[in-house]
């Protein structure tokens, strides 16, 4: 009979691999299966996004030996400037300024997803009881009394105590387990590109709220920034098609002059934006994590941070059960994970949805209300620090891997 492993994870993306490393470093036998081979996942054209990593996520990466590979590619966020703006008009005089000196540490880090993936693969190679099966999709799960059998695309069957779907927002595994989602589409796309600029950014991240949606300029290492440009779905395809010179001109209009001359790299990506929340996070011997469980508006760059918190919380409950000789796939263990994470994800998803609705328009009374709101927060130190701690993921019940003592 094939040996039963402790956990099989469908999805070796940023959340699935982090969870695999967290469980395996503590002695569990773990298999991670993904249909995309490492070389393809790291190729320049695969994923042009960057992630704003909250400091709770950075602590987790430090605790898991991932940060040492990522640190040289991670840009500290020294300041965040938020403005309400209109194309072609000066920004509103009310703005928000978050300064790292108030916390005594960077507000987070920005890293390109391909570097995060590369660091995860490097860290995973050093963990002996973590096995990566790739290319191999997890195509079916069969629950028996003592195990859950994961059927992989190449015919391999992996019996496990616990199966986790970390297979992204479409999550074929979630669908095969009969878990539905509440979802809606935003009439917006997120356009992503890397921009080179003449002057240094000084570690400042900018979020300009334009009527079509937020336009974020996120500092990268060197004189480079990543833009996440939220644009109406009727306009975005045209922007994606623009010849390079015209695209550069559109970017220059939105960047303003503070970084000097700007020039975008040729590769561009676009993502139709959607909200979804799984109707359940667990079933006997089965759990969802990351985008398989929730998809939120990228307005404040929190999607991956939420997924990493799922991974840390699931590792907490599963490892605690295993250390007590209990079954890590038991429904009572997994229900604790669901209670912990579903409400938190729901609250964050709704907050991002609300922010997007409040800011992505040009309705005069709403403009006034939000400008006044920003002005008030900007003038009150404890409120500013409250928002900074929230953005850093340092609120609520933190899983062990995200606490200060873990890093
Ligand atoms: C424009 C934009 C900007 C963003 N910016 C930020 C940000 O700044 N900060 C932040 O925190 N978040 C951000 N996000 C969100 C973030 O990118 C996602 O939350 C994150 O990528 C989710 O990671 P994941 O591992 O859950 O899923 P994915 O990255 O989608 O990984 C899923 C993995 O599962 C694999 N897979 C698929 N099917 C199967 C199967 N059947 N069997 C096994 N494996 C399978 C896939 O190959 C893939 O490797 C942004 C999102 C967008 C759209």
Description of the structure:
- The protein has 407 residues and is an alpha+beta fold.
- The protein has helices at 14-25, 38-42, 55-63, 67-70, 113-125, 172-176, 236-241, 244-255, 303-323, 331-359, 364-379, 381-391; strands spanning 5-10, 30-33, 50-53, 75-76, 79-84, 95-99, 109-112, 130-133, 138-143, 148-152, 157-165, 181-197, 204-210, 213-220, 224-232, 262-264, 269-278, 282-283, 286-288, 294-295.
- Strands 5, 6, 12, 13, 14, 15, 16, 17 and 20 form a nine-stranded mixed sheet that branches. Strands 1, 2, 8, 9, 10, 11, 18 and 19 form an eight-stranded mixed sheet that branches. A three-stranded antiparallel sheet has the order 3-7-4.
- Helix 1 (14-25) runs parallel beside helix 5 (113-125) and helix 1 runs parallel beside helix 9.
- The protein is globular, with a radius of gyration of 21 Å.
Helix share of residues? 25-40%
Give a count of the beta strands, DSSP E runs of length 2 or more.
20
N-to-C terminal Cα separation, in Å? Answer: 40 Å
Described by strand count, sense and barrel closure, the largest sheet is:
9 strands, mixed
Shape: globular
* Ions, cofactors and other bound molecules: flavin-adenine dinucleotide
Oligomer: single chain
Structural class designation: alpha+beta
Q: Tally the helices: what do you get?
A: 12
Taking all Cα atoms into account, the compactness measure Rg is 21 Å
Q: Strand share of the residues?
A: 25-35%
The unreliable regions are none
Mean pLDDT: 91
């Amino acid at each position: 009979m094939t040996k039963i492993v402790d956990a099989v994870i469908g999805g070796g993306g940023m959340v699935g691999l982090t969870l695999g490393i967290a469980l395996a470093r503590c002695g569990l036998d773990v298999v991670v299966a993904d249909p995309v081979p490492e070389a393809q996942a790291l190729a320049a054209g695969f994923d042009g996004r960057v992630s704003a990593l909250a400091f709770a996520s950075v602590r987790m990466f430090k605790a898991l030996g991932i940060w040492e590979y990522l640190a040289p590619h991670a840009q500290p966020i020294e300041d965040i400037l938020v403005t309400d703006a209109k194309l072609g008009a000066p920004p509103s005089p009310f703005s928000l300024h978050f300064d790292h000196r108030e916390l005594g540490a960077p507000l987070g880090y920005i890293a390109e997803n391909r570097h995060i993936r590369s660091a995860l693969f490097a860290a995973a190679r050093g963990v002996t009881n973590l096995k990566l099966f790739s290319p191999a999709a997890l195509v079916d799960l069969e629950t028996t009394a003592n195990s859950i059998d994961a059927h992989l695309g190449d015919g391999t069957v992996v019996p496990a105590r616990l199966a986790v779907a970390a297979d992204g927002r479409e999550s074929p595994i979630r669908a095969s387990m009969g878990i539905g989602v509440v979802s809606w589409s935003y009439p917006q796309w997120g356009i992503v590109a890397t921009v080179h600029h003449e002057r240094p950014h000084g570690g400042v991240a900018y979020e300009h709220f334009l009527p079509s949606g937020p336009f974020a300029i996120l500092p990268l290492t060197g004189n480079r920034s990543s833009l996440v440009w939220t644009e109406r779905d009727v306009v975005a395809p045209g922007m994606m098609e623009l010849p390079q010179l015209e695209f550069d001109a559109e970017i220059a209009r939105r960047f303003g002059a503070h970084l000097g001359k700007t020039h975008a790299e040729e590769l561009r990506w676009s993502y139709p934006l959607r909200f979804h929340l799984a109707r359940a996070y667990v079933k006997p011997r089965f759990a969802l994590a990351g985008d398989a469980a929730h998809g939120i508006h990228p307005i404040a760059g929190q999607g991956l941070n939420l997924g990493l918190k799922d991974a840390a919380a699931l590792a907490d409950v599963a490892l605690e059960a295993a250390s007590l000789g209990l079954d890590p796939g038991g429904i009572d263990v997994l229900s604790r994970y669901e209670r912990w994470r579903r409400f938190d994800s729901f609250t964050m998803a709704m907050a991002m949805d609300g922010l997007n609705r409040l800011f992505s328009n040009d309705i005069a009374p709403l403009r006034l209300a939000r400008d006044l709101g920003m002005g008030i927060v900007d003038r009150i130190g404890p409120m500013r620090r409250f928002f900074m701690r929230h953005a850093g993921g340092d609120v609520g019940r933190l899983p062990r891997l995200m606490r200060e003592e873990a890093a």
